[in-house]
Amino acid sequence: MPLAPPALPGDAVDAIDTPALLLDLDAFEANLDAMAARVAGTGVALRPHAKTHKSSTIARMQVARGAVGACVQKVGEAEALVWGGVGSVLVSNEVWGDAKLRRLMGLTRLAEVMVCVDDAEQVWALERAAEACGARIEVLVEIDVGQGRCGIAPGAPAAALAERVAHSTRLGFAGLQAYHGKAQHLRSDAERKAAIAHAAAAVRETLAALTERGLHARIVSGGGTGAFAHELAAGVWTELQVGSYALMDADYARNLDATGAPVRDFAQALFVLATVISAPAPGRAVLDVGHKGVAIDSGLPLVADLPGVTVTGASDEHLTLAWDPATVTGPKLGEKLRLIPGHCDPTVDRHDWFVAVRAGRVETLFPIDARGAMR
């Protein structure tokens, strides 16, 4: 059961109870519009990844701007989005277990739902679940394009698995899942370009192998916020699974463009609002949020509005701030600060609500209805 929201529409930002997840609506809406504009006229569809925001409300806003649907990683996320009114959802992941598969089949009665496979045993399990539920589901074969995680080998092995799917009476072969997640976080543009060229070659090899078997991939899905420009230019992907562009985080802000300058295609829209609850010594203060409110897997969060003040430590319920008191005026007891998380996806999953703000006041709240959807 979600907690009560930390604010009400009309509240000033300073009145928001903390810790709270802030969404800067001006930046957020500009990000949605910017990505929609980048793909417009390219022939490539937008299927944003909802593992970033975990919100059917945001997914519908993306669809309203032209997205064909959404991606998720878990059946529970798919349920939240379909029940929330999203009409097309790709589970860009493998699903195993009879209970999960039957839940997935149930969603096919309500929306277009697709799922990935990289092994013939998964195909068999999908068929069994579809037969039990009287359902039919579209399937993408996932190929390993450099991520080194899920995915069958490109080329002939992938085409053989696709043929197995295509011969099923309960499954339809929709195409390929070809996501290179590692490429999204390579810092230099040249590194990202090379990684995506390698991934595109793997896709082309697989498409050729499919043609030899008389198969057609109507969908080639993949792509991400960090390398989407190269994936657009490659000419092999039919839809992009960009996710973090809507919110952004400190990790993506470290990527560099072709000139060596920071990439600034999208604005920072996501913040964690926290309060200084202790200022025990000059140059040191403590906030009322820690691991439980902000993810640190991609580094400690940044302090948004106080140059010279840095987060130096984290524990379950606290972040410690430090600064040079001789040169920097630090925050005072009771002051509220905006933090930029290192990684937006797991940070969002720690909260029940987006507190959407504009011009210093709360405009609305979005429930994070897929929060904690691990199954």
Number of strands: 17
Broad CATH class of the domain at 25-254: Alpha Beta
The average pLDDT is 97
Structural Rg: 22 Å
**Structural class assignment:** alpha/beta
Instruction: State the shape.
Output: globular
Largest sheet, if any?
A: 9 strands, mixed
> Topology as H/E string?
EHEHEHEHEHEHEHEHEEEEEEEHEE
- Runs with pLDDT <50, length 5+? none
CATH topology name of the domain at 25-254: TIM Barrel
CATH superfamily placement of the domain at 25-254? Alanine racemase
| CATH architectural category of the domain at 25-254 | Alpha-Beta Barrel
Share of residues in helices? 25-40%
> What is the helix tally?
9
Distance from first to last alpha carbon: 17 Å
Tell me what the structure shows:
It contains 9 helices and 17 strands. With 375 residues, it is an alpha/beta fold. The protein has a domain at 25-254: Alpha-Beta Barrel (TIM Barrel). Strands 1, 10, 11, 12, 13, 14, 15, 16 and 17 form a 9-stranded mixed beta sheet that branches. Strands 2-9-8-7-6-5-4-3 form an 8-stranded parallel beta sheet. Strand 5 (112-117), helix 5 (120-133) and strand 6 form a beta-alpha-beta unit.
Concise overview:
This protein is an alpha/beta fold and 375 residues long. It has a domain at 25-254: TIM Barrel (Alpha-Beta Barrel). The chain is built from nine helices and 17 strands.
What structural keywords apply?
TIM Barrel; 375 residues; nine-stranded mixed beta sheet; eight-stranded parallel beta sheet; alpha/beta
